[in-house]
Write a structure and sequence with these properties.
Blueprint lengths: L1 E2 L11 E9 L2 E7 L7 E3 L2 H15 L29 H5 L6 E9 L6 E6 L4 E5 L2 H12 L1
Antiparallel strand pairs: 1-7, 2-3, 2-5, 3-4, 5-6, 6-7
Length: 144
Amino acid sequence: MERNHPIAWHVPNLINICIDSMVDGEMSGRIYHCYSREEICFSNIIRMIETAEEFYDRLQFPQAATQIRSFDRKEPVQEEERPEKVMEPEQILQMRGQKGTFLLNVKYRQNSSWQGYIQWVERDITWHFASVLEFIKILNNALN
């Protein structure tokens, strides 16, 4: 569903995705969030999704409804302290990608996927997505 109003930029898990290049359908760029002053570079869509998923796990928001299974016996994971904000949302909203800038607001992590909103900053268009696959398709269609 496409909407013409922006998503809330004050949510704790807001991610700014700056797409700098798209070669043979593969996106690369940078990710920004309020809990780090450093950019996080990604070279493909899978790495971008893994980076965001690691961020949500560390932030513990939104809480994952399912856990990844493993056949290896693992030591119990000790909970890390939640990170503290080091940047204001206005600062990360200023970063721009060469091909496009997208604000990602994942509201839920249910059914081993994401549900939320993505806003294309340059065009002021917001889409709702119900899965990571739908999220990828929205990004791909926006930049093609």
